[in-house]
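Q: Give me a protein?
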Amino acid sequence: MRAVPRWALVSSGCAPLLLAGGWTVAAVLEGPTYDPATQTISVLAAYGAAGFWVMTGALLGLGACHLLTALGLRPAALAGRLALGGGGLAALGVVLVPAPSSGGSLRHGSVAAVGFTLLAVWPVLAAVRGDAAPWALRPAPSLMATAAMALGAGWFVWEMQGQGAPGVAERLVTCMQSLWPFLVVASCLRHPGNGRSPA
């Protein structure tokens, strides 16, 4: 099995920190008018938002992290690596097509939906059969991760339709999607077959 470089642990570990740190700082800058339970992350990255530059930087960093992690995650199946990299490109696309300051945007929503989908399906596409595979790349954990992310995305869509708590649902699913690559890389590095990898 091909080795995972140690720098992939840094790129995958930075992804959830950048995302959560970005929305936290941007929400503080936005002030009490922003409600993280009922408003989405995209509101923080909209033109004119007080934390626009913070959330935009976080999304750029998130996209770069996913791209680097996909590059370094050599034991994963190619389809999964491509989907993870595509999710990173979608994060960069969300920056290029930000949400408007008020109302919705079909273009922004479409790019975000592509990103959500790619990041939800990449675990099952990356799965590798056999006992030699690291635990997070085995079919059962990969399928469970994809199912959990798909359920979270479904909950987010449902909350958006019902004017409920889409901010909570979105944060849950994006946390899962940004944390899973780190868990996969960590399981690969801990796997006996990883061996020494170049820095």
